[in-house]
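lol ok so funny story. i was supposed to be doing the assay writeup but got distracted and ended up predicting the structure for this chain instead. priorities right. anyway since i did it might as well share w the group, maybe its usefull for someone
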Amino acid sequence: MARVQSIVLLGSTGSIGVNTLAVAKRFGIGVEVLVCGSNITLLNEQIAQHNPKKVVIANKEDVYKVNHSCVLSGEDAILRVIEEATSPLIVNALVGFLGLRPTLKAFECGKKVALANKESLVACGAFIDTKNIQPIDSEHFGLWYLLQERPVQRMVITASGGAFRDWDVEKLQHATLADTQKHPNWSMGQKITIDSATMVNKMFELLEARWLFGEGEYDAIIETKSLIHALIDFKDGSTTAHFAHASMQLPIAFALDEAMQEKILEPVDLLSVGSLEFREITTQKYPVWEIKKDLLENPELGVVVNAANEVAIERFIKKEIGFMDISRFIIDTYRKFQNKPKSIDDIFLIDEEVRKYAQQFFFK
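and the output, tada:
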């Protein structure tokens, strides 16, 4: 596939969606369908600029607010527009487990997926053929960019460290939702910023890498300026690193145009950067890292961790639990649910079981 002619964009009003539309406009790529949640104001601006054939939103009661003649709502509508679309590429930038069924539907329809929805691979990687996925996370794009025909020893991705990387561990017990949103390097959505603070986001990205690139050794380190996104240690003892300014438009550009040769970003000026700082990810500050090694050895259990994380974050946002309880619940749930899914149906059953267990755990 060279440059696509049109796309279906799931999650149009988030940061990935906004950047995808910017690249699509630059490349002259049409937008067949826009799918978003509840940010109708931004959606209407996108409709005016990109003129999609169909629009899907989360809530039926908001349909009248949308400036379009064909507006659908709900999960089933997302699956239907994917099935009916003529576009060969689905950009899945939905947040959470909600994004899994659209990914599976896209593959069922023979379409390629530019994937930013972590949960698709985290929860269901064992049952997804990754040959039709182009990753648009910076870290996986970096690994893909670096891979050569040489034996690999280890693949490493980097983390910013999140909102609490410079906090004393003792203070974390009192961290608030507002505190979690103070990311040191950039502004993202609420959930992913919390995931960055707990380091769950990076553990998910390691799981994604495992499914995308196969069995092997994977790890992550903190690089505070977010200029290096991935490194590969080769068996000959050499290491390569992928430097780029933090912009999703670079991986998105390669997803929309496989032969991409345009200049998307300014190169990193190392003289201006001056120096880089690397830190270890410790279980003292990021307790969830305790299960990282075991999870990578049993990646089929990603569905457990994902469901536990989503429920814990909901509780944290409602102020029903503290920040450190998020990791505590994930670890507890991971140890309790050790039965690996045997089918895609099992994925949804396990997800449901974990969410039911959460009610007992938090209110016992």
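The chain has a mean pLDDT of 95. Residues 6-135 form a domain with the Rossmann fold fold (CATH 3.40.50.720).
back to the writeup now i swear
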